[in-house]
Amino acid sequence: MVFLLYALCTLRLAISRVRVYNMIKSEYLILVIGMGLVTYLPRWIPLFFLSRRNLPQLVIEWLDLIPAAILSALLFPALVTTGAPRHLALFQPELLVAIPTFAFALKTKSLGGTVVVGMLLFWLAGKFF
After folding, report:
1. CB 82, CB 92: distance < 8 Å
2. Residue 41, beta-bridge partner list
3. Which residues, listed in sequence order, are joined to residue 88 by a DSSP beta bridge?
4. HSE toward the beta carbon, residue 64, CA cutoff 13 A
5. Number of other CB atoms surrounding residue 98 within 10 Å
6. I need a surface site. Which of 40, 46, 52, 96 has the fewest CB within 10 A?
7. What CA–CA distance (Å, rounded) separates 61 from 118?
8. Which ranges in 51-91 belong to alpha helices (H)?
9. Region 13-34: what's the mean pLDDT?
10. 103 vs 110: CA distance, rounded Å
């Protein structure tokens, strides 16, 4: 009798764990679908509505500058600040490597060459700093 009671309690606990697991699993599925929509819709909506329209040349030129602006906004704080409470550090190795790498990129317009030069300079900076 005790064994039967123990078996029923264990079975009940296992069923409740499966329900909780299924609930968590469905919550993650909803979360992933929501994140996909939030990522996809801002890209799709302008493409859908603006693909059949002729945009003014000024707007097209302005849109061409967005990738460079985003890259600059991402890189600049990492190159000139450091620490947990961020503070200005102008002579850190990352900035000293980025300047000649940027000059190489402007002169040659070669993505592959720029990556190789940047990696080489960063490796050399790690040896000396």
Report:
1. yes
2. none
3. 81
4. 7
5. 19
6. 52
7. 29
8. 57-64, 66-80
9. 70
10. 11
pLDDT tens, residue by residue, 53-67: 898 999 989 989 999
Digit-coded pLDDT (tens) for 66-109: 998 998 999 998 898 888 888 888 888 888 999 999 999 999 99
Evaluate whether 93 touches 129 at the Cβ level (below 8 Å).
yes
User: Structure tokens of 55?
Assistant: 């945009």
Length of the chain in terms of residues written: 129
Q: Which residue has the higher pLDDT, 126 or 116?
A: 116
Per-domain residue ranges for the chain?
A: 1-53, 57-128
Q: Which residue blocks in 1-129 are alpha helix, DSSP H?
A: 2-50, 57-64, 66-80, 93-108, 111-128
- Both tokens assigned to 48: 């859908």
- Candidates 62, 97, 95; CA nearest to 78 is 95
